Amino acid sequence: MSTGLFDADGEDRPLAEINVTPLVDVMLVLLVIFIILAPAMANSLKVSLPRATGESVLPSSPLTVVLRADGSTWIGEEPLESTVLAERLRTAALRDPDILLRIDGDGAVPYQNVAQLLSMAQGHGIHKIAFTTKAP
Question: SS3 of 23, please?
C-alpha cells in the first residue's frame, strides 16, 4: 500500500492532498439525520399552559351569503336583491360587530359580483370574511 508519491529520483514522500470523500459522506449522513429529526423535534415541544377560570367564549354563528352562477344572491333559502342584502348586512353588523361573513360562491361567479359583496360588507363594518372552498 502506497502512502505517498515518488519523486523523479525515486524517493517516497508524503501525500500533500486531503481526501475529502469520507468527510462529505459523514456530512451527508448528518444532514439526512437532521432533516428527518427536525419536524419531530418541532412538534414535540412541551409547553405548560396557564390555567384560567371562566366561561368559554364561542364565536357567533356566521352570516352565510351564497353567490350563484346565475348572478343571484341568497341568504339561507331566500333570494335577495342588492338593496335587501345591504340592509341585512347592516343589521347583522349592528347586532354583532364581530360577525363573520361566510361567502359560498360558485366557481363560475364573476369576480365583479364577489368584489361588490366584499365592498358592501366592509362598508357596513363587517371585517371578518371567510370563503368556503372545496378541498382539491
Answer: helix
Q: What is the dihedral of CA 89, 95, 98, 103, to 10 degrees?
A: -30
SS3 label, residue 80: strand
- Please give the grid coordinates belonging to residue 114: 364577489
CB distance 63 to 97 below 8 Å: no
Q: What is the tens place of the pLDDT at every residue in 62-97? A: 888 998 888 888 887 888 888 899 999 999 999 988
**β-pair partners for 46:** none
pTM flag (> 0.70): no
Domains along the chain with CATH numbers:
63-131 (3.30.420.270)
pLDDT digits (tens, 9 = 90+) for 7-48: 666 677 776 788 889 999 999 999 999 999 887 776 655 666
End-to-end CA distance of the chain: 62
List the strands of the sheet with 78-80, edge to edge: 78-80, 73-75, 63-67, 100-105, 128-131
SS3 of 131, please? Answer: strand
